[in-house]
Description:
The protein has 343 residues and is α/β, with parallel strands linked by helices. The protein has helices spanning 3-7, 27-42, 61-68, 86-91, 93-101, 120-124, 138-153, 159-169, 173-186, 195-218, 222-234, 239-261, 266-272, 277-290, 297-310, 315-326, 337-340, and strands spanning 19-23, 49-55, 77-83, 106-112, 130-132, 156-157, 192-193.
Amino acid sequence: MDALQFLANSKPLRSPRPLYVLAGSDRFLKRLVLERLLTRLTGEDGIDWSRSFYTGDSEHLPEVLSEMQTPALWGTRRLIVVDDADPFVSRYRETLEKLVSHAVSAVLILLVDKWASNTRLAKALPSDAVLICEPPRPKQLISWCLARSETQHGKKITTEAAELLVELTGGDLGLLEQELAKLAVYVGSRQRITPQDVDCLVARNRVQTVWEILEALGRGEMGAALAILNRLLDRGEEPLAILAALGWQLRKVAQVAHLLSHGSSENQALMRVGLQPWQRERVWRLVQRLGRRALRLYDWLLQTDLHIKSTHLSPRATLEMFLTRLLPPPAPVGQSSEATARV
């Protein structure tokens, strides 16, 4: 079952499964799902739960299985959570298979990064006991923002504002939650969060600073661009939020470059992308500087996003490497950079 589908339901679970698996790479989404699962499990009247929490490297893991099969005292039921449980699953797979097929007086919740669907254990579990916690798609994120803003923060956010917020945060659920909380405070007694609110609180300062980075690169000043980037990181800006703001601008550059490569004029391309008059000069300057390399911006943005989320390189180093890709190479002697950068 998809994690967001599970989160949309708050009814108590009347017939709990003996084993639940929260599988995927999005740790913030896992935390939300775990909180909702615990609430739905313990929301049933007349039943008390004894809770235990372990990590996958805990020396007490053998006790988990014993605890699963030991009746709790005074009519309570046991609820056991194991985080980082991939090694636990590998080591005790056969025992877990037996637990799934027998009635026990406990519920075991495993948080894992990977979950192979072709194993006997996976096939023994019903679909509603395996909750997939992978990064949601943009449309799912927008729907999540609309619901989360109202249920968690007491404010309605317009669809346009949610779309802008998702674009600016790069689709990271943790960042979205932080920004929704700040927006709820920002609007005060007003009940609606508008695109203008998102622009003022989330976009304006970050995007303006990102433009300073891009303009420094357009002038060939890598040192200045890196200094601005490091200033953003040092004041606590999230790397994914910085990349999202960069992407918001660079996707417009890529769109213009694509239209130019298919025969559009400068004015036609800038107008079709929907740029405001004050944006056109900035974007056109970057299109000229990047030349045909602007057609590769989508790939570079995607690669950088994946590297920040999954590689051993620090986010700072990953962003610095991304910026070095954007700096146009020096023009040959006797030839202007504009001549070499023509799309």
